[in-house]
Design goal:
Blueprint: H1 2-66, H2 71-91, H3 96-109
């Protein structure tokens, strides 16, 4: 009779603990999958933004090559080019602070 009670208690503990671990493992796996999905989507968005900026830079380059020596046109194209570069850097995750830090370190190295 004593052994039956011990066996029954051990079986109950074993079954309850396994169910708890399984549920928490499932929740953890689902949460990691959601995080991976969000990360993949943010990477796709960033890739599309970078591709768009690269196309825009190629268009600006092509237009500037077709242009003659009109200085006002060149200045406008340079402004458009600079704005496209800034959007590309933002899309790639760079900030003005990180760019300024890298420029300062490059100036110190020179």
């Amino acid at each position: 009779m004593f052994y039956e009670k011990v066996l029954c208690c051990a079986l109950c503990i074993l079954l309850c603990s396994c169910a708890t671990v399984s549920r928490s493992a499932e929740r953890t796996i689902l949460e990691h999958q959601r995080q991976a999905d969000r990360l993949e989507e943010s990477i796709r968005v960033r890739d599309r933004a970078i591709a768009e900026c690269i196309r825009e830079l190629a268009d600006v380059t092509a237009r500037s090559e077709r242009m003659g020596g009109d200085i006002d046109s060149v200045i406008r194209e340079l402004d458009v080019y600079n704005a496209a570069i800034q959007r590309l850097l933002r899309a790639a995750g760079y900030t003005a602070d990180s760019l300024q830090d890298s420029e300062e370190s490059a100036d110190r190295d020179s």
